Amino acid sequence: MKPFLPLLLISSLMPLSADEAKLPSLDEILLDAKIWENGLESVKAATEPKKDEAAEKRSAAAMEELMKQLKEEGYTLASGSEKGFAWLSSQKEGLRARPGNFKLLGKALGEVVMRGNADSVDTVDISLYNRGDNGEIKAADFESRYEDWRKALEEKLGTRGSSRDQRGAVPIRGMMWTKDDSAFLLESSWNKSESRAEFIRLRMASVSGARNKTGKVVRRASLEDNVKKDAAGFTYVDGIPMVDQGEKGYCVVATVERVGRLYGLEMDQHEMAQLANTTSGGTNGDELEEAFKKVTGKIHVRTLRLIDYDDKQLNKDMKAYNRLAKKEGAWTMDMDTDEWIINPVWFWSKADKEVFRTIKAEQNGCEHFQRKIKEYVDQGTPLCWTLFLGMFPEKGLPQSFGGHMRLITGYNYDGDVPKIYYSDSWGEGHHQKTMRLDEAYCMTMGLYAMVPNR
């Protein structure tokens, strides 16, 4: 997956330490004994940044120039760069603050995600360090950060924490404190096999709320309750939680996390990125399937591969494309496939889009693609879809080219042109989008179903 290098570079040039004192604090909200009684709407309202019209105009002008430069280099700037909290989706079941928007106990925070609804906050997840956002750090710095936070929490909460270490695929060192109805869990993970720091995070939850949760994975039969039909004629899976992967490029782990949360699993993209050995730039097209296998192999679901794009299919596509392209007077792929190994990305980027769409729509594989989408959506199962971006234009994408994973969540086959609903893990505005089914099939590298074991 192509990393969003300009934003990564920009963030690396602007250290938080210089402005920590100016950051708005979350102390009053997160350390309030009644935090769990507040709705997400009230949290968002209480943390809205004050407007400075002159500064906003300067910022808008600078942003316009930056977007122009990035567009010339083939990038599209991600939305959601605002200060404060932003909704994860229009369902308003989660809030996300970008790294560097807030501080807690006088220390700058990374990404902050709060989940709940209009009446209550259910959980808070705060990144204090993660390899994807912050890059690699030395072991001594990693230990120092963890200890600084442990001491700060112990001092503020007025009690010693208890050990909550976990052994498993991702070993985790943890300390827990409880105060009033709040549980605070400080966790860190060091990857021994790679000898590198992975993450430090702070998780918060209601003690009484945790007692009332079943913690059970949903059964397959119950997923059909999530299937809805809208006024536009689309049948779709409702209630899929949104995750915003930010600029890290963790498209695989963010996609898996969303399906896992739909099934009732507690998941974290930084843990899964460690399992997948995902780099800070994300996953490229060649690594998507391998990362997906590593992550899903460690959770309690079955993974079914429904479509796999291989060299045999590529050769069929090139031959069929050349036959029609010659008739239409379009670009043809003249290299001898017996002599040369053809990179599919090169072929896809050069091929005439209308010609390629025509030959793909006539393949039996397109019917199979259409049939499998209906089969699993009707069961309430969204599909994990690996694809090549850039073949057909899409508006508002932080990534405009390269390998990617997203969800297929619905379909409408009633009109002359069958269409699908799909969803990217980039927060609000990416929850439910529409695409022609034949164009979706053209872009497809793989299609997978994650289903509960029972």
Q: In summary, what is this structure?
A:
By secondary structure, this protein is α+β, with helices and mostly antiparallel strands. Helix content is 33%, strand content 23%.
Q: Assign the CATH class of the largest domain.
A: Alpha Beta
Specify Rg, calculated over alpha carbons.
Answer: 23 Å
Q: What summary fits the major beta sheet? A: 8 strands, antiparallel
The fold-level CATH name of the largest domain is Cathepsin B, Chain A
> Would you count the extended β strands for me?
18
How would you characterize the overall build of this protein?
By secondary structure, this protein is of the alpha+beta class. It folds into two domains: 1-49 and 84-213, no CATH class; 215-454, Cathepsin B, Chain A (Alpha-Beta Complex). It contains 15 helices and 18 strands. It has helices at residues 5-12, 27-30, 40-46, 53-72, 131-134, 139-157, 207-212, 251-262, 269-276, 288-296, 311-328, 344-350, 353-361, 364-377, 437-443; strands at 85-87, 94-97, 103-104, 107-108, 112-116, 121-130, 162-163, 173-179, 182-191, 196-206, 227-229, 235-237, 301-308, 383-389, 402-412, 419-423, 433-436, 444-452. It has an eight-stranded antiparallel β-sheet, sandwiched between helices. Strands 11, 12, 13, 14, 15, 16, 17 and 18 form an eight-stranded antiparallel β-sheet that branches. A hairpin with a 5-residue loop joins strand 11 and strand 12 (235-237). Helix 8 (251-262) packs across helix 9, helix 9 packs across helix 10 (288-296) and helix 11 (311-328) packs across helix 13. Mean pLDDT is 84; it is low at 1-18, 73-80 and 280-284.
